[in-house]
Amino acid sequence: MDGDKDPRHLLIRAHDGPSPLFGTDAPGLPGPDDFTTSVTAGSLGLPGHLAQRLQTWCEARPPGGFTARPALRKHVGQGAEISRAVAAHLGPRWAVRYWDERHRTAKFVCWGCDRMHWTLEAHGHPLPPHPVHITVRGEYKWHPLRADGIGDFAPDDPAAALGLSDGLVAGFYAWAAAVDDALDAWIRHRDDLRHDAECARLEAEGARLAARLADELGPGRTVTYLGC
Questions:
Q1: How do residues 119-175 score in pLDDT, each as one tens digit?
Q2: Chain-wide mean pLDDT for the chain?
Q3: Does the first or last residue of the chain, that is N or C, have fewer Cβ atoms within 10 Å of its Cβ?
Q4: Among 222, 217, 47, 208, which Cα is nearest to 138's?
Q5: Cα 157 from Cα 163, distance rounded (Å)
């Protein structure tokens, strides 16, 4: 979210209807009963696999609700996990809440960590608790990622809460190391042709990594590539 702009509100709640996603036009901070507008996963741009998880989870709820408490606990836990994935994909422009049928509560789901919060302020409004605008840049002896308020940071830095795949994290580490090696090699050998060729390769590899980063982070964050 930008500055004091209010986020859009979404409630995730399994019920007897076709979709577990609900929106609202209620002003201010809506309560759980204010979410009366059915929302489709497609309108939110959710990935197909996540939309399918949502639908399967919703359909697993028996008509009228659970009668066995162990089954209810399992279903609530699955819903919390799916809600975190939805919040992470949508990012700070959305305030995602999850209806816990077991405890009959609707908490805010953090888009950057595994926690849930009682208040919108704890959720990170108006200032997001994690970086939203990410810059990718290869510089000698610097980490490959940048963000205002953090500076350069590693792709698996828990403070940034990016939640990247192991493959992408490894790719960024390898790229940053190769940037360092390229300059070290030029200092030793002063071979401009070899250095230019390696820089061109690293430039292209950085662009590919930045594109993968944008894909994994989803629409809730921005990624800018500044080369190397």
A1: 877 655 555 667 889 999 999 999 999 998 789 999 999 878 888 999 999 999 999
A2: 90
A3: N
A4: 208
A5: 9
The first and second tokens of residue 77, run together, are: 């836990």
- Name the H helices within 60-138: 69-90, 120-123
What pLDDT, in 10s, does the model give residues 11-47?
Answer: 999 988 789 999 999 988 899 999 999 999 999 999 9
Distances (CA, A) of 152 to 19, 51, 128, 157, 163: 41, 34, 18, 10, 17
Domain regions of the chain by residue span: 8-123, 133-225
> Which two three-digit tokens encode residue 105?
């509560």
Residue 224: how many other CB atoms lie within 10 Å: 12
Other CB atoms within a 10 A radius of the CB of residue 177 amount to 11
Entry pTM? 0.68
Torsion of CA 15, 119, 115, 223, to 10 degrees: 100
